[in-house]
Amino acid sequence: MKSNARNSLAMAGAALLALTALTACGGGTENQTSAAAQQPAANAASGSPSATAATLSSGEVSVRADNSLGDVVVDGKGMSVYVFAKDTKPGSSSCDGECAAQWPPVPAGEAKAAKGINQELLGSITRTDGSKQLTLAGKPLYYYAKDTKPGDVNGQGVKGAWYASAPDGWKAGVKRPALGVLNDPKLGMVLQDKDGRTLYLFTKDQPWPMKTACDATCLQKWTPTAPVSAADAKAAGLDPKALFTFTTPDGTRQEAFNCWPAYTFKGDTRPGDINGQNVGGVWFAIKQSITIDQGKTVPAAKG
């Protein structure tokens, strides 16, 4: 009898150990269901974006030419990514809960910039659940749950607030302002023209009275910036008094900021490029914050 009792206890103990091991390794159906229920809302959305988001950490971010929207940003699998017009507070997302189920945040992971994207514009924010979300020029990036295959842009214009992302975080398919602002992680807020090209100043120019030192050879790489209006300046967060339009020797009307003539660089091929920064140690992007003192303060963004 004692031997039978010991055998029964041993068998019960073995069964308990097996059950414990099964539970600890996640082998039970109930345990698998529980684990899935604990996934963040962003990964619980239906459709392929959740699977894409899960693998982006080892992928790339690049640009795809869309027939109607122009250049749009896509992940390593070709899925479109979006920006949210209501994301106006730096360093945070305005899309949580049910919103994040429809618009899963693109995880930061170790995403790298590929063709058409400036690596320096990639960054991340920490969401309320502690996860890291990828940003482009400070703009949080999202997928759309109703995009099911590469090339889909079903989220474009939804509720007048969601847009496929342009290469610099601007809203793809939406006309740019005459004077724009790029949030560069290293240089800060710098000015752009109507095509999203970075504006630069040339430290060899004379600010007051204004005189350009960019000769014919120089002009093969640097293009004078067209004038903008006071309303354009206000829309970009500038005091209109910062504008000083002047006429160059060849009769071109060129815009200047605090008396420093502005140019674009032909080496910048897409919005968000800043390839002209510090060229020859004399060319610098023009920062948004400008002191108005007739050129005494140079509005150069030097990082």
From TrEMBL:
InterPro entries xrefs:
Lipoprotein_repeat (IPR005297), SCO0930-like (IPR047910)
Extent of the signal sequence: 1-26
* Residue stretches in coiled coil: none
Write the record's keywords in alphabetical order, separated by commas.
Answer: Lipoprotein, Signal
Q: Where is the composition biased (Low complexity)?
A: 31-59
Q: Is Lipoprotein among this UniProt entry's keywords?
A: yes
Q: Where is region (Disordered) located?
A: 30-60
Entry protein name: SCO0930 family lipoprotein
